[in-house]
Amino acid sequence: MPADPRPETSASRSGTTAVARGGTTTPTRSLAMAGLMAALTAVLAQLRIPLPFTPVPITGQTLGVMLSGLLLGPRWGLAAQLVYLLLGIAGAPVFAGGAAGLATLAGPTGGFLVSYPLAAWLAGLLAGTGTGRGTMTGPAGVPRFGRAFLAAVVGGIVLVYAIGAPWFALETGRAWPQVWAGAVLPFIPGDLAKAVLAAWLSGRVLRALGGRWV
């Protein structure tokens, strides 16, 4: 049978082009968004308030961690925070106060930094960002405020403390009452405020973008 001589329609060409581009456009956009969230975390790290009784300062870093998970989902939220850590290890002054290098990770606050990729992953997983699962409202993939807040608290606070506090205790040799007083309790009110802001802001952004950012 002879080949169909009819010319390719513009619709079929568009479909072919979309398929051809689909394999690269989405990963490229996702990588760009992960890089953007890593940069945001680096900027928030410079919002630093030292406390006289502890080497752990108040910073905005965990807001970047929460937003990474809530906006990008577990996979790309984790990637964003891995990029952030790798930049710091490579010598970029992205940690609190412009610190950088492996020495920072080996110090008393290193456990908090190491926890960030897992924290973003867990926050994104619990929020169900981009999945359309569970108790969602509005466009598919936009978690309700309560669910996003809980995800931010469990991922961006509980998990961060669960890794950071024991690390702090080992590095400083302080007893657990001192660890609670110097590395946990003073930071809970501010971190809860960050969780509220992250839940509200991520919902606004995701709704504006139809439920997905990556």
UniProtKB/TrEMBL annotation:
InterPro entries linked: BioY
Alphabetical UniProt keywords: Cell membrane, Membrane, Transmembrane, Transmembrane helix, Transport
Region spans: Disordered: 1-26
GO molecular function: biotin transmembrane transporter activity
Pfam families registered for this protein in UniProt: BioY
Annotated Low complexity bias: 15-26
Protein name as catalogued: Biotin transporter
Organism: Thermaerobacter marianensis (strain ATCC 700841 / DSM 12885 / JCM 10246 / 7p75a)
